[in-house]
Amino acid sequence: MPPTITITVDGLAEDVPQGLSLPQLIERHQAQHKDLIVEINGRFVHPKTYDEVEINQGDRVELIHPAFGG
Amino acid sequence: MPSRYTMQELLAGWGPEGQARLGRATVVVLGLGGLGGTAALLLARAGVGRLRLVDPDRVSLDNLHRQLLYVEVDAAQGEPKADAATQRLAQVNREVSLEPVMAEFKKDNGAELLRGADLVLDCLDRPQPRFLLNDLCLKLPLPWVHAGVVAAQGQVLVLRPRVTPCLRCWFPEPGEPALTSARDGILGPAAAVMASLQAGEAIKLLLGRDDALLTGMLMVSLWPPSFREVRFSRGGQEPCPVCGY
Fold first, then answer.
1. How far is B160 from chain A (nearest CA, A)?
2. Residue A69 falls within a domain, yes or no?
3. Which residue in B131, B125, B130, B142 sits closest to B205, CA to CA?
4. Which chain B residue's Cα is nearest to A49?
């Protein structure tokens, strides 16, 4: 078993593999990649930097879908 | 003798001078659904001088749970939203000049629809025309207030060319939306909350109260309830190729 870390995604605790990247986390949550608003520990993550971001123990992640209806 | 506007003129930084500023303003409301109808209602009551009311659709019965401007007879007769909105707003405040336009906001008519505007409210119902609006407002330049709503959630964002990030800064690669009202529905109170927030930002912009504006993207959910303001960061990336921010 690979080591795991515990993070919080949208307010819920979740165990994920150590070394998980942000795009992998997004994929785990079946979130649409392009129009997502992502915050980690209260800080906005620019979409063009997703590939550089690794998820760490204790991170609080928000994956927010914008609403484009009217 | 109190006037129509006495209670809002009492607000700090408003007064008769602020009211006169509103009275001189022209606001274009793009989309007259759950967001635009309610936002237009609030701006008409506040005494904004001129409202251009733009929507290509007609009122239908499934609009009525959230589109507060319209009544059953509008739906029964399939009234154009621009016309029904104009009739209702004229009953609310005869001092406001109303300009109904039954049209879709598109590339070939976008600049004409925004002509003479001081401010635009983005109450559109799809992502694509919002990016067209973004590009036009950068070019003119023209401030605008974006709002969107689906299900019980939405967001509000104030966009000022050369002052704030543009919509493409937030969404550099717009794709198909994950949430759609056709599939996920819309909670009536959620639409009204987002429209109220949007109208509030619009009034502050018209009053010149830049100090009191939203500085990030306000993400709102009513079910479960939460408000969070997300502050933009470029994360060390190159400036936006569209707006240069």
1. 19
2. no
3. B142
4. B235
Contact B148 A70 (CB under 8 A): yes
Residue B219: list chain A partners with CB under 8 A.
37, 64
The structure tokens listed for A68 are 């484009």
Q: Is the residue at A70 inside a domain?
A: no
Residue A58 belongs to domain spanning: 4-64
Name the fold adopted by B6-230. Answer: Rossmann fold (3.40.50)
Structural tokens at position A62: 């928000």
Question: What letter would DSSP give residue A12?
Answer: E
Contact state of B150 with A31 under an 8 Å Cβ cutoff = no
Please answer whether residues B186 and B150 qualify as being in contact, where contact means their C-beta atoms are separated by less than 8 angstroms: yes
The beta-strand segments (E) located in chain B are 26-30, 50-54, 97-101, 119-122, 144-150, 153-159, 217-222, 225-230
Strands B50-54 and B26-30: parallel
pLDDT digits (tens, 9 = 90+) for B75-127: 999 999 999 999 999 999 999 999 999 999 999 999 999 999 999 999 999 99
Residue A6, both tokens: 């515990």
Instruction: Tell me what ipTM this predicted complex has.
Output: 0.90
The DSSP line for A5-62 is EEEEETTEEEEEETT-BHHHHHHHTT--STT-EEEETTEEE-GGGGGG-B--TT-EEE
**Torsion, CA A28, CA A34, CA A35, CA A39, rounded to 10:** 60
* Chain B residues in contact with A65 (beta carbon < 8 A): 153, 177-179
Contact B161, B141 (CB under 8 A): yes
Q: Bridge partners of B217?
A: B230
